[in-house]
Amino acid sequence: MHVINGIQGRIHYAAAHPDFARMRPCFCFVADEYVTATGLDRAAYLASRWPGINCSSNENSIGSHLLPDMDRPADIGSESHDLSNFLLRLGEVAAVKASTWQPP
């Protein structure tokens, strides 16, 4: 579990083409409220601010929104440079976007 700006969730690898994922991994924070017994509540996740926050928090992301690969949780204890950078940026980006985001 991970807490970002008071929101509890998990870090997963982003869903991406396998060749891209091997070259430059990207990550997603998934708030617990978007995880159901059957997996990701995709509609609720996409309607939230998190797809954009996740994209902005990755140095290597492509596109404007990232979807998590719910079958691939990230190893938070790893020494991955990409993961460390993501975690550093995630709180900052989430704080900025939270201050300007309006729910649909």
Short note summarizing the structure:
With 104 residues, the protein is α+β, with helices and mostly antiparallel strands. The chain has helices at 18-23, 42-47, 50-57, 81-100, and strands spanning 2-4, 7-14, 27-31, 35-36, 39-40, 68-73.
Describe the structure.
With 104 residues, this protein is an alpha+beta fold. It has 4 helices and 6 strands; from the N terminus they run E-E-H-E-E-E-H-H-E-H. The chain has helices at 18-23, 42-47, 50-57, 81-100, and strands at residues 2-4, 7-14, 27-31, 35-36, 39-40, 68-73. Strand 1 and strand 2 (7-14) form a beta hairpin. Helix 3 packs across helix 4 (81-100). The chain is globular, with a radius of gyration of 13 Å. 25% of the residues are buried. The mean pLDDT is 84.
SSE order, as H and E?
EEHEEEHHEH
Per DSSP, the total helix count is 4
Strand content: 25-35%
- Structural shape: globular
Describe the biggest sheet? 4 strands, antiparallel
> What is the residue-averaged pLDDT?
84
Taking pLDDT < 50 over at least 5 consecutive residues as the criterion, the unreliable ranges are: none
Distance between the termini: 27 Å
Number of strands: 6
Radius of gyration over all CA atoms, rounded: 13 Å
Helix content percent band: 25-40%
Derived from helix and strand composition plus strand pairing, the structural class reads alpha+beta
Oligomer: single chain
Notable traits:
104 residues; four-stranded antiparallel β-sheet; two-stranded antiparallel sheet; 4 helices; 6 strands; globular
